[in-house]
Amino acid sequence: MTRVRIPFPHRRAGHCGSGALRDLLEFHGLTYEDSGYPLSEGAVFGLGGGIGCLYLVVPQIDPPIYLVGRTADLERDVCSHLGIALDFRQTDDPQEGWELLRAELDAGRPTMVWADIKHLEYLRVRMHNTMHDIVVCGYDDEAGVAWVADNDRDEIQRCSLESLARARNSRAFPAPNRHATWLMRWPTALPPVADTVRAALRRTVENMSGAGTPLLEGVQGAVGLDGVDLFASDYRRWPARFGNRLAAALDGLYVFIVKAGTGGAMFRSLYAEFLDDAARWLSDETLASAAATYHALAERWRRLADVVRSGASDDPLARHRAGLPLVQEIAELEHAGVRALNQWLTATPPVGALRAR
């Protein structure tokens, strides 16, 4: 029988992916902070360029909409931008999946995996999400347990190996996770900060221009700024489109903005924190101004969630009307944010170009 328990730094986070990667970066002592403090969760999210938008109507389910503010490639792009070698493995063989994870833990490497939240016994939730990032940092064969760092909990969680196996082999929403295991090999230092910030901002602009991979592939929806614009125009038609299901659509909107692991504001508050950090790292007022735009955007998303949520009014039509001006402001600020990032990329030459002068 084997028992492995790796000391692992962990704090609650707003989003599973950026929270897990923040903890892993801290474990490996990698940061851009002069003080030596770990990177913020927002910095990790932003360094992946993970901002996006996907909006679609799904009338066959409740709520009859789907809205998400990140792309599918966030975790991969964090690795790419920070020089982390990634080997993403999936298998349909439960034994192979466990042996792969156990080998990493035996080697002293806490490892990120995908797990379906419905099957993680310590969460006690009803909904499925097969692509929830957690970090496994130990196991005990004899006790039949693993130790898990999850963004939704303050402390390292004890999880039965049976529960973890079910969570890693789920075929539920949004897709089968097939024992997905993120095998990462970490650098001794991060790449130059200016290069990394530029790559991350360029990725964000690409995502919002429609080039990013949506979190749900193969669906009929709009992405990036097109997704923002479709949501804004479609929202006005919700009463006629949904009728007596309007309340369900509004309740779903509230969940998608603040409750679905979004950092509380469609990921925009996380991105604003990244821009604050990047502006400080580079002593750049243009980035500080862009951060202010994303702080304003996050505040509008939170206000929209507040006015449409169940309990804000007994009348769904009143809740919907209260959201109309905020939706318009959000669309305008989403475009303004991308313009600000584009302007910085255009006005600030790459570091190599500066050195060549």
TrEMBL record:
Entry superkingdom: Bacteria
Organism per entry: Thermoleophilum album
The protein's name in its UniProt record: Butirosin biosynthesis protein H, N-terminal
InterPro entries: BtrH_N, DUF4872
Domain Butirosin biosynthesis protein H N-terminal span(s) in chain numbering: 15-151
Residue span(s) of domain DUF4872: 162-341
